Amino acid sequence: MANGWSIPPTAFADLIDEEVVKRVRVITMALLNEVVLRSPVGNPSLWKDKNGKPRKAPPGYVGGRFRGSHIVSIGSPVYTVTNTVDPGGADTINRGMAALSGLEPYTQVFIQTNLPYAERIELGHSTQAASGVYELAFVGVSEAYRE
Q: pTM for the full model?
């Protein structure tokens, strides 16, 4: 009969905590990647007014603000509205990865955008994201990591 633990229970608990952090980081990054890649990048050639006539972009317009607006935070949401323009999405993904550097086990992670027109995009008002962004990303990643 054994006289005790061959490995202290605290070592097991630490291992579980590390695995939880890894899993949350992987799922968060998968979700952020989906959100960023599904995010429409303004294309003025597709814009129409209420009557279906072509609409011009404002002077100096550069697409990619919505794609650059996604924020990753730990513990609580952030209510900042960003002006970041990131048409390719790489900077947004890198910022998200950096935000996860201080991740602790069992901490909530938030991915959000606070742009005033984000809800319209989620409701399908963009021909590039006619079915939204966040909900589809969530469903896809949930299915991929279902156990």
A: 0.86
